Amino acid sequence: MKQEMMTIVRQQELAPRIYELVLTGELVNEMTMPGQFLHIRVPRSDLLLRRPISINQYDRAEETCTIIYRVEGDGTSYFAEMSAGEQLDVMGPLGHGFEIDQLNAGDTAFIVGGGIGVPPLYQLSKELKVKGVKVVHFLGFGTQEVVYYADEFQALGETRFSTDDGTFGIQGNVGNLLLAEKRQPNAVFACGNNGLLKTVEQLYSTVDNVQLSLESRMACGMGACYACVCHVPEDENKSVKVCEDGPVFQAGEVIF
Ligand code: FAD
Ligand code: FES
C-alpha cells in the first residue's frame, strides 16, 4: 500500500451521475490483484474521511488506473467537479481482491454485478480472459439510461443484461438472469448489493469457488478502526474487517 498525489488524466460522465476517472501515478505499479480499492481524500477540509472506490482497471505500462463512481453525497459530488491536471491524495491499493490462481484455461467463470458493483469486475474479467478462462457476465442496472461498459464487457465474452424496468436486457434483476442459466461454472465472482450477493450464495452453494465482494461503511480503510467489522458464521467472538481481510470473501466466510 502506498499513498500518493495522483494526477487526473481525464474524466467523463458515462451516464447520469456516473463518472469514469483516469488517474496516473507510481501507485499503479502496486496494482496486481483485481477487486482491490483506492481510499481517496476529498480535497475539502471539512470532509475528513477518505472515500473507498474500487479499481475498475489498471495499465501498469501506461501508469494509469481507472475508477467508476456514482455521485451520492458531498465527496463524490466534489470528485465530479474535478478535471484533467488536478490531483487527488490516494491511498492504495487496499484490501484483498479476487483470487484467480485456481482457474485454468478452458474453465468457465460467471461474473455477476449490479449497479455500482460492476466496476471492479472489468479488470477481473480482462485478467481471466488472458488466462483463457471463458467469462460469462450477468449485469443488472436500474434502467437503460444508467447502463455503462456494455460494449467493454461484451468485447470480453458473453454478456447478459437485466434492468428493473426492462428497457435494456430482460426485465427484472440479476437473480432472474441467473435462474434462467442452466450451465454450472467452475467459479462465480460477484459484486453488488447484499441482496444480489445472497442470491449468488444460495444459487451456487454447490460450486466450490464463489467469491463475493462486500460493501461496507469504512473510516480508516486499513484495519485500524474496526468501522467495517463483519462476523463469521458459528463463532460470535470472531470477526473480520472488510477493508483489510476483504472486500472479497469466499461465500459462507462472513455474515452480511
Ligand atoms: P456521503 O453519503 O456524503 O458519504 C458520507 C460517508 O459515508 C463517507 O465517509 C462515505 O465514505 C461513507 N459512505 C457513503 N456511502 C457508502 C457506501 N455505499 N459504502 C461505503 N461507505 C459509504 N462507489 C462507487 O460509486 N464506485 C465504486 O467502485 C465503489 N467501490 C467501493 C468499494 C468499497 C470497498 C466500498 C466500501 C465502497 C465502494 N463504493 C463505490 C461506495 C462509495 O465508497 C460511496 O458511494 C462513497 O464513499 C460515498 O461518498 P459521498 O461523500 O459521496 O457520500
Ligand atoms: Fe477501519 Fe476497516 S475501515 S478497520
TrEMBL record:
User: Which sequence ranges form a coiled-coil region, renumbered to this chain?
Assistant: none
Name the pathway it acts in.
Pyrimidine metabolism; UMP biosynthesis via de novo pathway; orotate from (S)-dihydroorotate (NAD(+) route): step 1/1
CDD domains, per the entry: DHOD_e_trans (cd06218)
Sorted keywords for this record are: 2Fe-2S, Electron transport, FAD, Flavoprotein, Iron, Iron-sulfur, Metal-binding, Pyrimidine biosynthesis, Transport
Binding positions (FAD):
R51, P52, I53, S54, I68, Y69, R70, G75, T76
* Gene Ontology MF terms in the entry: 2 iron, 2 sulfur cluster binding; electron transfer activity; flavin adenine dinucleotide binding; metal ion binding; oxidoreductase activity
Any Pfam family hit: DHODB_Fe-S_bind
Which SUPFAM superfamilies would you find in this protein's record? Ferredoxin reductase-like, C-terminal NADP-linked domain, Riboflavin synthase domain-like
Q: How is the cofactor bound?
A: Binds 1 FAD per subunit.
Family note: Belongs to the PyrK family.
Name under which the protein is recorded? Dihydroorotate dehydrogenase B (NAD(+)), electron transfer subunit
Q: Which organism is it from?
A: Enterococcus malodoratus ATCC 43197
